[in-house]
Write a structure and sequence with these properties.
The protein is mainly alpha-helical and 320 residues long. Helix content is 44%, strand content 3%. It is elongated, with a radius of gyration of 45 Å. The termini are far apart.
C-alpha cells in the first residue's frame, strides 16, 4: 500500500507569513536539482552513510515522515557531518589532507544520516514547509533548511530563506558543543559560504550569487556612522612668551639648537652661582661655613706669619 504524504506536516497558517514566497505555489511536487541519486552530497560522506549500521538497520525501519521527525528530535545534537574525534586527518597531505571536504573519513553523524533518509522519502513542498516551521526542535528546522540547500535550484534559495533570515532561535552546531548559532546566521552561512565543517555545499552560479548579495544589501543596508560636527572656534592670537610651543614650529632647527644650548648654559650658571654663594653673616660667626673646603683649612694651618714665620718654625724655636 502506498503511503501518501500529501498533507502531512503542513502548517496552513504559514502562507500568510510568507508573502510572495515560493512556498505559496500550488504545485506540491518539489524538483530535485543536481544529482538525483547522491543528493549532491560529498562522495566520502555518502559512502559512509550507506555503509553505516545506523542507516542500514535503525533508519531502515522508519517508513513514515513523522517517524523520521521523531528520530531527529531524539537523536540529533549537532549539524556536523562527522562525529567528534572520529575523523583523523593529521599527518596527511594532498587529497587526503582534509582540504575541501576530502579526508580519511570516520563515523558519519546522525544528522547527515537522517538528512539522507529524508531524501529517500522524496518530500513534498508541504512536508518541507512543515520541517522548517516545526516548533519542537531547532534541529528539525535546520535539517529542513539543509535539505533545501542540497536539493533545490540555486535560484529558489532566496525565496525559501528570506522569511527566516531574522530568526533568533539558537542551537549548538558543533560536534561536542561550543558554537551556538541562530537560525538566521546559519541561513546566511548556507547562502554565502560554500564550506560547512569539512564538507561542501553545491556551488551557486555567479550571477545568482550576485543577485542574492544585492538583495541582502538592500534588506540589510550598511550602517554608516555619522561623524561629529566640528565647531569652528575663533582663533586666539597668543604671544611668543605665553604660547612658546606654537611659535616653536616656526623656528628652524639651528635656532632650536641654539636656544637649547643657551638655556642649558643659563641653568648651569645659575646652579654654580647658587652653590658658591657665601653670605656675609657666616664670616663673623663661630660656626664653620659649609662652603669652606678642606684645602682652605690646610692653607690656613700652614700659613706664614709676618712676625714669627711659619707655625712649624715657631714651634721648633720654642723647643730649643
Amino acid at each position: 500500500m502506498e503511503v501518501s504524504y500529501e498533507n502531512e506536516g503542513y502548517d496552513n497558517d504559514y502562507q500568510s507569513k510568507s508573502k510572495g514566497s515560493i512556498l505559496t505555489r500550488k504545485n506540491n511536487t518539489m524538483p530535485i536539482w543536481g544529482n538525483e541519486r547522491t543528493m549532491n552530497l560529498n562522495t566520502l560522506i555518502l559512502t559512509n552513510i550507506q555503509s553505516s549500521h545506523y542507516f542500514k538497520v535503525n533508519l531502515y525501519e522508519l517508513k513514515t515522515y513523522h517517524e523520521v521527525i521523531d528520530e531527529i528530535y531524539y537523536k540529533v545534537q549537532h549539524l556536523e557531518p562527522w562525529e567528534k574525534g572520529s575523523r583523523k586527518t593529521s599527518g596527511q597531505t594532498g587529497m587526503c589532507g582534509g582540504v575541501r571536504g576530502v579526508g580519511a573519513g570516520g563515523i558519519v553523524s546522525t544528522a547527515f544520516c537522517l538528512l539522507y533518509k529524508l531524501f529517500t522519502l522524496k518530500l513534498t513542498r508541504k512536508q518541507v514547509t512543515g520541517l522548517i516551521t516545526h516548533c519542537d526542535s531547532p534541529y528539525i528546522r535546520a535539517l529542513g533548511f539543509m535539505y533545501i540547500r542540497y536539493t533545490q535550484p540555486p535560484g529558489d534559495l532566496w525565496d525559501w530563506y528570506e522569511s527566516f533570515l531574522d530568526d533568533e532561535e539558537e542551537m549548538d552546531v558543533r560536534a561536542g558543543g561550543g558554537q551556538v548559532m541562530t537560525i538566521g546566521n546559519i541561513l546566511k552561512s548556507f547562502l554565502f559560504k560554500l564550506e560547512w565543517y569539512s564538507t561542501l555545499f553545491p556551488r551557486i552560479p555567479v550571477p545568482i550569487q550576485q543577485q542574492m548579495e544585492k538583495k541582502m544589501s538592500e534588506k540589510y543596508p550598511p550602517v554608516v556612522e555619522e561623524t561629529p560636527r566640528r565647531i569652528n572656534l575663533p582663533e586666539k592670537n597668543f604671544s611668543r612668551d605665553r604660547d612658546d610651543h606654537r611659535n616653536r614650529g616656526d623656528l628652524s632647527d639651528t635656532s632650536r639648537s641654539r636656544e637649547r644650548i643657551e638655556r642649558r648654559e643659563r641653568s648651569h650658571r645659575d646652579y654654580r652661582d647658587r652653590d658658591y654663594e657665601r653670605k656675609p653673616s657666616n664670616a663673623n660667626s663661630r660656626e664653620r661655613s659649609p662652603y669652606v673646603s678642606r684645602r682652605d683649612d690646610y692653607k690656613k694651618s700652614s700659613s706664614r706669619s709676618p712676625k714669627y714665620g711659619s707655625s712649624r718654625r715657631r714651634d721648633r724655636d720654642d723647643y730649643k
